[in-house]
Amino acid sequence: MRTRLLALVLLLMLAGCSTGGTRDDGRITLRFQSLAWQEESVEANQQLVKEWNATHPDVRVEYVQGSWDSVHDQLLTAFEGGEAPDIIHDASDDLADFAYGGYLADLTGLLSARLKSDIPRRSWETTTFGDGVYGVPFLQEPRVIIANATWLRTSGVRIPTPEKPWSWAEFRRITERLGGRGKYGVAWPLKEPVSATLNLSLSAGGQLFHRGADGKVTVRFGAADQVVPRTVHAQANTDRSASPTTLGSGGSDTLPGFFAGRYAMVPLGFSYRQQIVQQAPKGFDWQVLPAPAGAGGLTQGVSPQTLSIAEDCPHEKEAAEFLDFFLRPPNMVRLALGDWMLPTGTEALKDPALHRTKDGWATGTALAGHLRPAPAQSVRGYPEWKDKVATPALQEYYSGAIGIDELRRRLEEDGNLVLARYQR
């Protein structure tokens, strides 16, 4: 009896650890871990999996709900324990260590010609490490300004468009003009300041990370890199046109004050529009504006959402066929609408549903051609540099605790010491 119970326990353990395989009847099972979290997005992902399974009886995809919370550590544990899902949803700025660590399959020879040609080269650069491609970038999110349309209209300020955006200097002047009497022209939610700062700095010609001929990366915090940080610092500490209390807040935390009329504008990711539609008081008039432009125009960095295949997946060809189905242009549109983001695919971007003026879709879509790989995209050691050096340094700078020279010293001197450990 004990022997039979032990055998049953071992069978259950093996079943729980399986990352996909072939059943006795010959049917393949692939586990797909999705990080979709918004109701519409989860529904779109699950529906596409059902449609695949209905037309591919020999290759069944099992939907597994994951979470963006601590996804890097969760995946690392799964990889090292041999329990990783076959198909992995993540973000491109999280792939470098997994790609170089040998945990992800090189997709170069697995992807269809249609999919490779439909997604622009600049997007593929976000998932290319060395000579391999380790993910398919499929959703991207520009940063925009969500504005109280009534407030801006009555103030008489010039309303920017993608064709005629504000400069960073003009943006500062306008927020100063809109603020006063306990109200603020802008609320910057900078609980996680690094991504916002680096990605928006591309519009001013910033680069920050510089790769030498030997392939090693160093940090140089030059004048162009300082335009965005100096603007935010001045708004919060000199002009008093930016709310000081939101600097340590997340994007969602600023919405109640925005709806209550405390701030005229909030810089946010494009997908926050869904929360605004759901939560805004009846009659609240809002609009989407492009982020300010500088020497680099409207250029800004993005880290697209990605789909990868685990190196240990025993059925890479079938997994790649699922990716091709999942990311057909009509399906990519469904995923983009569900997540309130933009698709990377050029055919999907042509869909009329993404060019409506309602809810700011047209403004966001107009920015798609200006999106470039985030500056830290291929930098090994970036997560540690961000957490241990850049985040605390930027938080202290934006709060006024340190000046620009100390910020530069910490980003460069302290930061390069961290990065050097990953480039020996």
Can you offer a commentary on this structure?
The chain is built from 18 helices and 17 strands. It has 424 residues and is α/β, with parallel strands linked by helices. Strands 1, 2, 3, 4, 7, 15 and 16 form a seven-stranded mixed beta sheet that branches. The chain has a four-stranded mixed beta sheet with strand order 9-12-8-13. A hairpin with a 2-residue loop joins strand 5 (128-129) and strand 6. The longest helix has 18 residues, at 382-399. The termini are far apart. 45% of the residues are buried. Residues 1-19 have low confidence and may be disordered.
Topology:
Elements (H helix, E strand, L loop, with lengths): L1 H16 L2 E3 L5 E7 L4 H17 L3 E7 L5 H10 L6 E5 L4 H5 L12 H6 L2 H4 L3 E2 L2 E2 L2 E5 L2 E6 H7 L12 H11 L5 E3 L6 H9 L7 E3 L5 E3 L3 H15 L17 H5 L3 E7 L3 H7 L6 E5 L9 E3 L2 E5 L6 H11 L2 H11 L2 E2 L2 H4 L11 H6 L4 E3 L8 H18 L4 H17 L4
Parallel strand pairs: 2-3, 2-4, 9-12, 14-17
Antiparallel strand pairs: 1-2, 4-15, 5-6, 7-15, 7-16, 8-12, 8-13, 10-11
Helix pairs in contact: 2-14, 8-10, 9-10, 10-17, 17-18
Query: What class would the helix/strand composition place it in?
Result: alpha/beta
Query: What percentage of residues falls in helices of 4 or more residues?
Result: 40-55%
Quick one: how many beta strands? 17
Low-confidence stretches: 1-19
Rg (C-alpha, Å): 23 Å
Mean pLDDT score: 93
Spatial separation of the terminal alpha carbons = 56 Å
Strand content: 15-25%
Number of helical segments with 4 or more residues: 18
Instruction: Describe the sheet with the most strands.
Output: 7 strands, mixed
Shape designation: globular
